[in-house]
Every structure is written in structure tokens, then in C-alpha cells.
């Protein structure tokens, strides 16, 4: 018995699995499954991505360059970056605080809090946008008070930022909760017993142990913040150069039959997605 | 520093983890909290450290009530069962942690921190590993680093939760001896939790035996092992053969056989003739008699003889109740001279018998 175990351990586990005919399916089955998944991958993922760039460059570099240097596009880029730049730090603070609470303490209503954090995932983004219109809009609950004080939220930048925060709300917290729950509270208890304050414990012990998870959450949050369409569309009002983010700008151009320009701007979003994936890969590799 | 535990109660919903526990831990001693899992020993340790709060009762450190003292102010070194080392810090930084988080006016200079950490790493014999990360260490090394880290802040008390629990048998034995020596050098009041009676007997100055949230017995290892105060204590501290029957003036009547009280022993005062009793004998305190016709002793049948070393272990079952088992340790030479065989009918007589009244 012991000899057999020794023999198996001489190989690496995965090699044994791949070499052994006992664990392999017949050739035709493997090729069919592999072929089907590659075909699917090509049609539904690769082709659209390629189409974006091909369409964007159909009328040449000049048109492409004009489309992305157009002042309206510039305004859309700036607004998109602004919304993300406000939403991400807020969601990081909120996400870390919520995950810390949920994973390190026991309290009543914990399950309810977890469910609430998931709300933006389960509700349609259009509904999310509509909720803000109903609360802050001209005929909404706070509409009169807001217009009296000359504060504009709906069909203005604050509304777009609010909608972005709402839809990206769960990303950081969702990423951290399972991680922090798995890590338990031993390290924190050790830190406190060694005399560390709550603040020191967080900065020196908790944060370093979750930094890769946190970064991963930020990346996902960022991707969603920049790409969000539905919720932002409802509260934006589509004022060109003022309240259009990149995805909204793509829609406007497309509706005006400026296909090459629409695809050119869309290619910016696609590039952004590719960069995000690259960073995500890097983080996964570093944290593994 | 002395630790006093006064009337501590702790309940987890319906489970009474600690039931009115009062204990005195003397200064400078190494005390074992021993008991089966779920007996409340770890909960008690965590309450002393302040990581858990008792429902009622007091913990006094050097006579001072700690009810309102935060964990970080108690100056207690706590070693966790799985060591809880900071994975992202080197061994050096792990040990230095307690010094670095001190308030600015108490924090030693960088040179002093360096010196203290180096000293501690030498103390735990791991000076060469300062730059490693915890994941690059073996279990035994991690345990010693955890101990060095706890000692760095000059704790008044050292609390160790199952310090050897996560180690393999051989390393365990080495570290036990090492911990004992370390304690003899430092003389810091220490409490360690364990479920392993051998570990407690070997390492501790004093043993607190716990069961179901209550203290069963307190005493030196020798005392607790030689004179278990309760049936639980007898059973928990080593292998025990158990006999149930009625107390008669010269022994225990087990069904229709007499288990005689050895002539060297006098009967317990609180036993009533005719009362139900439970008697225990250690495997080496039973003798095998080959004469089945003898008038005394419990009749049994040998089922197996394991003669590997100088002492043979003989497993027997009762002559009529086959599911009642006994274990007897006999010198291998005697097994040969008595010509004991598997399947042979014999009688068992105790040379030492502990009798408790049942109920």
C-alpha cells in the first residue's frame, strides 16, 4: 500500500490525470466539445469585438480621429471619468466598511444588510434610474425644495454620479465579504492582544491581507461605472456635451446614423474593457 | 502575576459553556486546562484574555478586576491554536508588531526594537529565519514565532490555546519539552489549554481538569493521575477498566463474582454496603489468574495478546457478557511463564482499585 502511494506521488497530480487513458474521453468527444466551445467563443465574443474595431476604421483613420477628438466626445469622456472617480472611492469606503462589519462581527440584521447590498444587482438599472427621477425630479418628492434652492440633480451631473454609485454599489463589498469571512478574526484578535488599536489593526493587519481582493473589486466596479447605460440614461436627459457619458454618446451617434463615429467611440469603451481584463489577469496572477 | 477567576458563567444560546467557575492561578506556574472538546476550556481562556465576555463573574489580574479593561490593556500574551501569524509580514515584523503599535511616547527606538526582536528570535532558536514569511515555515517553527511575538510586549501572563494541537506527534513531543524549559527560564504565569492528558501530565505544574463547563479536579499531575477524584477524571486520564456492581465489605460484587479490594487498600469512608458502585482499575493494576476455579476475581476470556515490547497488552472480554472488554498490561516474561493463550479462560484481580459510589 505504501509503495503504491509513493509511486503516485512521484508524478505531479495533473500530469497523471492527463496521461492516464483511464481518465480521458475518446478523441471524437474531446474534439467535438472543444470545437463547439471555440466556435461559440468566436461567434459571440471575438466577432463582435472585431466588428467594433473594423466598423470604427471603415472610413479611415481620419474619420476615426475626428470622432474621438470631437469636443462632445471629449465632454463625454470627462463626464464618464468624473462619475467613475467619484463612485469608486465612495464604494471602496462603503464596501470595506460593510465587509468588515459583516465578516468580523455578529449582530442582528446581518442577513438583511447582505441582502440590501445585493439590491442593485437584482433590480433593473432602469428602475434604479427611475427611482432617482421620482425622488429628485421636478415632480418628485424633493423636486420643489430642490428647485427653490436652485439645486439640479436630475438631467444634470449629480444625477449621473448618483445613478453610477447605485449600480456599482455591491462590487467591492461582494468581493470582500467571502474573502474576509474565510480569513476569520484570528489575526485581528492577535493584533489587539498585542496592544494594537482598532485603526492600527485595520491598516496594518486587515487591509494588507485583503488588498488584492479589494483591487479586484475596484476593477470590476470601475468597468461597470464606465460602461453603465440603463440607469444613467434615465437620469441623464441626453444633453449633448453636458450630460452624456461615453455609452450614451455612442447611442446618440448611432441614432444619428453616424455609424463610423459611433463605433469609434464604442472602440474606446472596448479598449477600456480590454485594459480592465488585462489588469484583472495581472491581479489574479499576483494574488494567486 | 496571579490570575483569579470568580464565579464565571457563560452561555451560548442554550449551551452552558461555563458553569460558575472559580479558580486561582498562582504566580509563575504553568497550569494546564485539560478536558474533552466542548468542556469550556478554550472559552475560559478567551474570557481571561478579554476576547470573550462572561455573562457574569469576575476575572482578577493581580487582585484587580479586569471587567472594564480592554484586551489591549491587559498585557496578556495570547497564542492562538493556529498561531494567527500575520501572513504578509516577515517573521521579524511579526515579532516586532507589538512594539511598533505602541503609542509614540512608549514606542522603543528602531535600534531597540531590532535588538529585542533579535533577542527573542534567539530565545526561540529561530534567529536565522527573520526574513522569511510565515508560509515558508514548518508548523513547529510557526508555533515558536507565535510565542516570540506574544513575548515581545513583556506580557504579565501567557495564555496558550492548544499550543501543540496542530503539530505532528514527533514535533509535538520536542516542543513540549522545549516549552517546559522555556517556562523554567522565564517563570511567567502561564495557562495552556489541551485535550491531551499526556501533554498536560508531562508539561504542567498543575492541572485543572474540566468537563461540561465545570471543574472536575485540580492538582499536581501526579496527584490527578494517582488519585482521580471522580469517575470522569479516572476515565479521562488514561485507559481504565470499568466494573459496575454492588459494594460489599471486602470488594465489589460484579453480578455473581467478587472483585476483591486489594489487602493494601482500605475502603472509602463514604461507601455503603449494598450500594451501587463503579470501580476502575488501570491496565497495569489488573492481574491475570490462570486458575479459573479460584473463588475471587472477574471471569474473562483472552481475545488477543499484543506482545511487542517488554510489556504485553492483553485484551479480554467478560466470560458471559461478550461486549464487556478489559485491557491488562503484563510483563511479556509473565505472559510466557503463565503460558497465556488467546481464547483461554482466566480471572482478573486488581492490585489497585478505585471505587466510586454511583449516582
Please outline the major beta sheet of chain B. 6 strands, mixed
Question: Helicity level of chain A, as a percent range?
Answer: over 70%
Unreliable segments of chain A (pLDDT under 50, ≥5 consecutive)? 1-11
Number of E strands of chain B: 20
Estimate percent helicity of chain B. Answer: 25-40%
Layout of helices and strands:
The complex is a heterodimer of chains A (288) and B (359).
Chain A: H1 2-9, H2 13-19, H3 27-56, H4 60-69, H5 71-104, H6 110-122, H7 125-136, H8 143-148, H9 157-168, H10 170-183, H11 186-193, H12 198-227, H13 230-236, H14 246-255, H15 259-287
Helix pairs in contact in A: 3-15, 4-15, 5-9, 5-10, 5-12, 7-9, 7-13, 9-12, 9-13, 10-12, 11-12, 12-15, 14-15
Chain B: E1 3-12, E2 15-25, E3 30-34, H1 41-49, E4 56-61, E5 64-65, E6 76-79, H2 91-100, H3 110-123, H4 139-151, E7 157-161, H5 169-186, E8 189-194, H6 197-203, E9 206-211, E10 214-219, H7 221-226, H8 231-236, E11 241-248, E12 251-254, E13 257-260, E14 276-281, E15 286-289, E16 298-306, E17 311-318, E18 325-331, H9 332-338, E19 345-350, E20 354-357
Parallel strand pairs in B: 3-8, 3-9, 6-7, 7-8
Antiparallel strand pairs in B: 1-2, 1-4, 4-5, 9-10, 11-12, 11-14, 12-13, 14-20, 15-19, 16-17, 16-19, 17-18
Structure description:
The complex is a heterodimer of chains A (288) and B (359). With 288 residues, chain A is mainly alpha-helical. In chain A, 80% of the residues lie in helices and 0% in strands. Chain A is built from 15 helices and no strands. The radius of gyration of chain A is 25 Å and the shape is flat. The two termini of chain A are 34 Å apart. Chain B has helices at residues 41-49, 91-100, 110-123, 139-151, 169-186, 197-203, 221-226, 231-236, 332-338, and strands spanning 3-12, 15-25, 30-34, 56-61, 64-65, 76-79, 157-161, 189-194, 206-211, 214-219, 241-248, 251-254, 257-260, 276-281, 286-289, 298-306, 311-318, 325-331, 345-350, 354-357. The model of chain B has no long low-confidence stretch (mean pLDDT 89). Chain B has nine helices and 20 strands. The two termini of chain B are 39 Å apart. With 359 residues, chain B is an alpha+beta fold.
Amino acid at each position: 500500500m505504501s509503495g503504491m502511494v509513493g509511486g503516485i506521488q512521484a508524478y505531479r497530480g495533473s500530469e497523471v490525470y492527463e496521461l492516464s487513458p483511464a481518465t480521458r474521453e475518446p478523441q471524437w468527444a474531446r474534439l467535438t466539445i472543444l470545437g463547439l466551445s471555440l466556435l461559440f467563443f468566436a461567434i459571440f465574443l471575438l466577432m463582435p469585438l472585431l466588428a467594433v474595431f473594423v466598423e470604427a476604421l471603415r472610413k479611415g483613420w481620419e474619420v476615426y480621429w475626428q470622432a474621438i477628438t470631437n469636443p462632445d466626445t471629449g465632454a463625454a469622456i470627462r463626464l464618464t471619468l468624473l462619475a467613475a472617480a467619484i463612485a469608486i472611492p465612495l464604494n471602496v469606503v462603503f464596501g470595506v466598511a460593510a465587509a468588515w462589519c459583516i465578516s468580523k462581527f455578529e449582530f442582528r440584521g446581518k442577513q438583511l444588510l447582505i441582502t440590501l447590498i445585493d439590491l442593485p444587482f437584482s433590480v433593473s438599472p432602469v428602475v434604479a434610474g427611475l427611482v432617482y427621477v421620482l425622488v429628485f425630479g421636478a415632480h418628485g418628492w424633493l423636486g420643489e425644495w430642490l428647485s427653490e434652492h436652485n439645486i439640479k440633480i436630475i438631467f444634470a451631473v449629480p444625477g449621473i454620479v448618483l445613478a453610477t454609485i447605485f449600480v456599482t454599489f455591491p462590487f467591492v463589498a461582494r468581493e470582500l465579504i467571502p474573502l474576509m469571512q474565510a480569513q476569520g478574526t484570528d489575526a485581528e484578535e492577535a493584533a489587539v492582544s498585542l496592544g494594537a488599536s482598532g485603526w492600527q489593526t485595520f491598516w496594518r493587519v486587515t487591509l494588507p491581507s485583503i488588498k488584492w481582493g479589494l483591487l479586484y473589486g475596484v476593477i470590476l466596479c470601475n468597468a461597470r461605472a464606465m460602461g453603465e447605460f440603463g440607469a444613467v440614461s434615465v437620469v441623464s436627459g441626453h444633453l449633448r456635451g453636458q450630460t452624456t457619458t461615453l455609452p450614451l454618446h455612442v447611442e446618440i451617434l448611432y441614432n444619428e446614423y453616424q455609424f463610423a463615429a459611433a463605433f469609434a467611440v464604442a472602440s474606446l469603451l472596448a479598449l477600456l474593457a480590454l485594459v480592465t481584463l488585462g489588469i484583472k489577469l495581472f491581479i489574479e496572477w499576483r494574488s494567486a | 502575576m496571579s490570575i483569579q477567576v470568580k464565579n464565571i458563567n457563560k452561555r451560548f444560546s442554550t449551551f452552558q459553556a461555563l458553569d460558575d467557575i472559580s479558580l486561582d492561578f498562582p504566580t509563575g506556574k504553568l497550569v494546564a486546562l485539560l478536558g474533552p472538546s466542548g468542556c469550556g476550556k478554550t472559552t475560559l481562556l478567551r474570557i481571561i484574555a478579554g476576547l470573550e465576555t462572561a455573562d457574569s463573574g469576575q476575572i482578577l489580574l493581580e487582585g484587580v478586576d479586569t471587567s472594564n479593561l480592554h484586551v489591549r490593556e491587559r498585557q496578556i500574551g495570547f497564542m492562538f491554536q493556529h498561531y494567527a501569524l500575520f501572513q504578509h509580514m516577515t517573521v521579524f515584523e511579526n515579532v516586532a508588531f507589538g512594539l511598533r503599535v505602541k503609542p509614540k511616547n512608549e514606542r522603543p527606538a528602531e535600534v531597540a526594537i531590532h535588538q529585542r526582536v533579535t533577542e527573542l528570535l534567539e530565545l526561540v532558536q529561530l534567529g536565522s529565519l527573520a526574513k522569511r514569511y510565515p508560509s515558508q515555515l514548518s508548523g513547529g517553527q510557526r508555533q515558536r514565532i507565535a510565542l516570540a511575538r506574544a513575548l515581545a510586549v513583556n506580557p504579565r501572563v501567557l495564555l496558550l490555546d492548544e499550543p501543540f494541537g496542530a503539530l505532528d506527534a514527533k514535533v509535538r513531543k520536542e516542543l513540549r519539552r522545549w516549552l517546559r524549559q522555556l517556562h523554567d527560564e522565564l517563570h511567567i504565569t502561564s495557562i495552556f489549554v489541551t485535550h491531551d492528558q499526556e501533554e498536560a501530565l508531562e508539561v504542567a505544574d498543575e492541572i485543572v481538569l474540566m468537563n461540561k463547563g465545570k471543574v472536575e479536579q485540580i492538582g499536581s499531575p501526579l496527584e490527578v493521575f494517582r488519585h482521580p477524584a471522580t469517575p470522569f477524571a479516572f476515565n479521562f486520564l488514561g485507559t481504565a477498566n470499568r466494573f459496575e456492581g454492588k459494594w460489599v465489605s471486602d470488594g465489589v460484587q460484579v453480578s455473581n463474582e467478587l472483585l476483591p479490594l486489594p489487602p493494601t487498600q482500605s475502603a472509602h469512608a463514604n461507601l455503603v454496603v449494598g450500594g451501587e458502585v463503579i470501580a476502575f482499575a488501570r491496565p497495569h493494576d489488573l492481574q491475570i489468574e490462570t486458575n479459573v476455579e479460584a473463588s475471587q476475581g472477574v471471569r474473562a476470556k483472552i481475545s488477543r495478546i499484543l506482545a511487542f515490547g517488554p510489556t504485553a497488552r492483553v485484551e479480554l472480554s467478560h466470560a458471559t457478557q461478550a461486549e464487556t472488554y478489559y485491557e491488562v498490561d503484563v510483563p511479556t516474561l509473565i505472559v510466557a511463564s503463565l503460558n497465556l493463550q488467546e481464547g483461554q479462560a482466566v480471572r482478573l484481580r486488581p492490585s489497585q482499585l478505585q471505587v466510586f459510589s454511583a449516582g
